[in-house]
Write a structure and sequence with these properties.
By secondary structure, this protein is an alpha+beta fold. It has 11 helices and 8 strands. The radius of gyration is 25 Å and the shape is elongated.
């Protein structure tokens, strides 16, 4: 047990700042849309998803921004009135319900985008993403070892999230109590985040656990050059997948690639869904579809991990749970390290000197 305590303390001390950054940034990102509603009055109004209304708006955004390197459009909805254009250079733009540009910025040029990059990539691209994943895996081990360490002293547990005093023993008690209270939410949030980074091993494990055969990667059909009729795309999507909500509109990403519309069906948890309609801009006829509800058991479970991590389900109660979990993770990391660094040094026993 002493060895486990020492390993837990040192690992926590080394990783505390990184875990605190991930926890705090994740907690703030939960309320990104609320922040945008305060900044942009247009975000407080919903938009119509009818093909004849939404289609021309997507077409206008596509026509005006494709030359700027448009990658995809994150579409507004009945409860949030901002479209977001995402560009290949990392920049973006917010547009109102008619497609008018409200704000345009370069990479990390807005606070919510900077915070997203910090949380997902630690502002260091793919390398930062891998480091964040390692920190998530370490946080899982810290949580589990912490529960093992405090198990013998659970009789002293109290529903307390704030220490009685600033004394070291009270800070340690608060660290124990806070860790026990938020153990399950922390494990859920951290594991789902870890799964987003290291999706390959997680998917392989889910395939084994659910006895699912790995699904082949979806094939994007070839298409010709032309102007995409987004009204027609939305109409086809509504016919093929009734009740599905359009979420992402993507112009052809390369020569010969189709345009695509990503949808969320009512039974899908993922905020953007995993359902696709592919269209040929040359003929504006569908070239293929991908039904998110026909995925394997393993893929359906994996697709549910992202909304669990990003508070995409559960409404305001889950938003608050995610907020408090992120704050708890931050406090556990920083306060635990503080108490570790304040650990009193043992005084060396003075040897008695006896006279001959």
């Amino acid at each position: 047990m002493l060895l486990l305590r020492t390993a837990h303390a040192w690992a926590g001390a080394v990783l505390s700042f990184l875990i605190a950054v991930l926890g705090l940034s994740g907690a703030l990102l939960v309320f990104r849309k609320d922040y945008l509603r305060l900044v942009f009055p247009q975000a407080r109004e919903g938009v119509s998803l009818a093909p004849e209304t939404l289609g021309p708006v997507i077409g206008r955004i596509d026509a005006e921004h494709t030359s700027q390197g448009l990658q995809y459009i994150s579409l507004a909805g009945p409860d949030f009135g901002l479209h977001k254009a995402v560009f290949k250079d990392g920049g973006g733009a917010y547009l109102d319900a008619q497609g008018n540009t409200l704000a345009r910025w370069a990479k990390n040029g807005r606070p919510e985008d900077w915070l997203f990059d910090l949380h997902h990539y630690l502002l260091a691209g793919d390398t930062g993403k891998l480091i964040a994943g390692v920190a998530g895996g370490a946080a899982i081990l810290l949580c589990l070892t912490g529960l093992i360490i405090v198990w013998p002293s659970l009789r002293m547990f109290a529903w307390r999230v704030w220490p009685k005093t600033a004394m070291r023993r009270d800070l340690l008690a608060q660290h124990r109590d806070l860790g026990v209270i938020f153990a399950l939410p922390i494990l859920l949030i951290v594991f789902t985040g870890f799964s987003m980074v290291y999706s390959g091993p997680v998917r392989a494990t889910l395939n084994v656990l659910t006895a699912s055969r790995p699904a082949p990667p979806p094939e994007r059909p070839l298409a010709g050059a032309g102007t995409t009729d987004w009204t027609q795309v939305l109409t086809v999507a509504a016919e093929r997948f009734p009740g599905a909500i359009p979420r992402l509109a993507s112009p052809p990403r390369s020569e010969g690639a189709p345009a695509s519309l990503r949808l969320r069906q009512p039974a899908e948890w993922h905020q953007n869904g995993r359902t696709y309609v592919f269209m040929d801009p040359a003929t504006n006829l569908p070239t293929g579809t991908s039904d998110g509800m026909s995925a394997t058991r393993a893929d359906r479970i994996f697709n549910a991990l992202y909304p669990l991590h990003s508070a995409g389900i559960g409404g305001r109660l889950y938003d608050l749970l995610s907020l408090f979990t992120g704050l708890a993770l931050t406090i556990l990391g920083l306060a635990g390290t503080w108490t570790f660094l304040r650990k009193p040094r043992r005084k060396k026993r003075k040897r008695a000197v006896t006279a001959a």
